[in-house]
Every structure is written in C-alpha cells, then in structure tokens.
Amino acid sequence: MSLTSYHMNWSFGSYWGDLLDLLKTRENATLYGGTVSQTNIEAQVDLVGTSIAIGYGLDLLVNSNAEINELLAAAGLPALSDSDAAFLRQARLDREAGFVDRDYLIDLKNNLTLVLSSEFEAESLLIATIYRAEGWLVDEGFVLPESKERMAILSMAFNGGPGILRQSVSLRAAIENGDRAEAWYEIAYRTNGGSSESLGIANRRYAEADMFGLYNENPSEVDFRKAYEMFTLHREAILDYEGR
Prior knowledge:
By secondary structure, this protein is mainly alpha-helical. It has helices spanning about 15-35, 65-75, 80-95, 100-110, 120-140, 150-160, 160-165, 170-175, 180-190, 200-210, 220-235, 235-244, and strands spanning about 40, 45, 50-55, 60, 115-120.
C-alpha cells in the first residue's frame, strides 16, 4: 500500500514549472527575481559564511570538482579552469581543518573565474542538479509520481544531499505504508535536527512538510483521525522540538 492520493494543484502549469519556481525562490530569490544582475553571475558566499555557491544553490565546497564538472557538462557549460579547481580543492582541505571563515570565502570568491553568463545558464545548471537529485530519490527507493509530495522530498535531497534520504528509512516506510501523517511528521521533525541545531534547516523542513501535506486532497474522517493519532503518539517529541 502507498499513499492513496497526491497533490497536483500546480501554480505554474506543471510539476516542472512549480519545481523550478520552488528551487529558484529558495536557492537564489534575488537572481530569480532580477533584483541582481542576471548576466555575469559569480559565485556567492552563503548567508552564514560557511560555504560558497553559484547560480541556484550549487555548492562549490560540498560538491567535488568531479561532481561540479559533471553538472557543468550536463548543462552544456565548460569545465572548471585549472586554477579554479586548485582553489576549490585547497578550500575544501582548509574548511575540513577549520581554517575557513567569511573573509576566507570572500577571498576565494574573488579568485574564482567561474561565471555563468546568463540566468538561462543558471537554470540549465539547476536542471542538471535536479536530475541528479531525482536519481537519488530512485536510488533510495522513494517512488512517487510528479506531485507536491515528490517536490517536498526532492527539495530535501537538493538541500541535504543523498545522505538525508539514506537516513530517512522511517520516512520511506511511512510513504510505502500509505501513512501520510507519519510521513509529514518525519519530514517536519525527524530530518531537521531540531530548531536549536539549525533554524534555517528546521524552517525549510517545516515548509517541505507543509508542501507534502498532512491530509489528502479531499480529507476524510480517516485523515483527521490519523493526524490526531500521529500528534498524540509524538506529542512529547514535537513539544521538545518546538521548545528549543
């Protein structure tokens, strides 16, 4: 048994239209909205000063040079220059050793020659990254149709990498068992480390749980009962998370 219904009420005409809007908004709203230049797009230091990304959230330190080059090739873009590859390789070593801070990353940004010439190139790179994340869903057994539910899980993978799916055994089981309320709980509270660990990640997981949906499209008495049972079962854990 799996979920009995899926949310497909698209705001932008299709699964892909909504998915691109979702990830563009979450990963680089200023680029998407045109409030920054949509030409000569350089890498940017993230808000918390721990890494550096280009376009719509392609993290240049989390991903290896080989992974970055694979995605660039899939988007029809040239590979990293030798100098960029060397800078990024060293930055990963320095971050692992605890030497990387915001000033370090700003210097790294200023030394990189990697530039996307247009928003179209940024979108092409985003699409390549989405296809990679879609592959992770398949590899980890998350079999879902093109739906808001699939978008929620893909957003998790896009943000957290394949590891977050690999660790979400209970989430996959809840989906396979058709237990929507339990799946909602797993996304909202079991994949974010708690708000005290990372408020930004916690807020993103709450939003993804909301997208997944606590109830079916046309909820029945069974849906409301399952949600009540879930909140009762996990009441202490939820209060613990919310109280941090």
